[in-house]
């Protein structure tokens, strides 16, 4: 069975994990009774995690033709003769409207129906909730035929329990190994002591002992000399506690700028010139400050003042972020700290999009799953646990962990 990536935008990505079967159609009947049978509609709908009745109905609405899906036989029929390419194009439109997240483009979403009878898509990857355009004809059909609620909580709880059990077992094994190695080390040290005492009684042992005594005496003599010089020198007066240094004033009398603010300002001016990613990486080597300070400054220079659209800007400028990461010797914790630092100063609207931004960087292979999870676990339980960033990062981390457990099961 031939497979293709879900979503036209991911067509050329060889490593994209979400796939569906290529559409197969068959023209049946003749004259007024001619119909198009989508032979593998059930398999396509299963890959999209949507009922096959939704896709079949969507084709009928868009083509202005009667359509029918038989739940018992799994047969999907649309009146009229329609070629495969045309139906495949309509399916892409269905995926954009009813499958892919409007934030990160991930197809792992579920359809929600609100109390006010509105349709939403909730993304399992970034937690973004997309509002579906209710002017589309299919929305009425979905409201009348709501999707089945997935009962995945029990399965997820079992996975977590199994993971915890394995973790505890590994910890117990590790503790047993350490206990065993400490006992072996103690027995070895006692053997060495007994051997050492025997050597001291031997002629070579006595020579070694005399050598050690001589070295100890010379060390004691050196200490005595140092003490005598210290006694001769007058006692030092205790210096009063240092006062904070006053801020340096420039020639015009204004206070000098903070070095980090100066670095951010310089980077903003440099980025206005539109350098390439390689040119930015070279420029960063001439910047003063630690790698963490420089990468923090890059983030501030790139995204300072952004309100909405933070995630999209991250996706647009991921080449610059990659250059900063390469400058920091591919240290992902430095990049994650820069994101955390930026979100601490950014507007609430920008912080809400941090999960989508992380998803873009994860898809671009700039961040790895282990680094993100470790950063989240340390941050959400550390000194900065009250920050609002962790609330918005949590759905993405849970998605990463559930995806990992699913791949292990497969």
TrEMBL record:
CDD domains: W2_eIF5 (cd11561)
GO molecular function: eukaryotic initiation factor eIF2 binding; GDP-dissociation inhibitor activity; GTP binding; translation initiation factor activity
Domain W2, first and last residues per copy: 253-410
Keyword Protein biosynthesis (UniProt): yes
GO CC list: cytosol
Keywords associated with the record: GTP-binding, Initiation factor, Nucleotide-binding, Protein biosynthesis
Basic and acidic residues biased stretches: 159-186
Pfam families referenced in this protein's UniProt entry, alphabetically: eIF-5_eIF-2B, W2
Superkingdom of the organism of origin: Eukaryota
Region (Disordered): 149-210, 227-259
GO biological process: one example: formation of cytoplasmic translation initiation complex
Assigned protein family: Belongs to the eIF-2-beta/eIF-5 family.
Function recorded in the entry: Catalyzes the hydrolysis of GTP bound to the 40S ribosomal initiation complex (40S.mRNA.Met-tRNA[F].eIF-2.GTP) with the subsequent joining of a 60S ribosomal subunit resulting in the release of eIF-2 and the guanine nucleotide. The subsequent joining of a 60S ribosomal subunit results in the formation of a functional 80S initiation complex (80S.mRNA.Met-tRNA[F]).
Protein name as annotated: W2 domain-containing protein
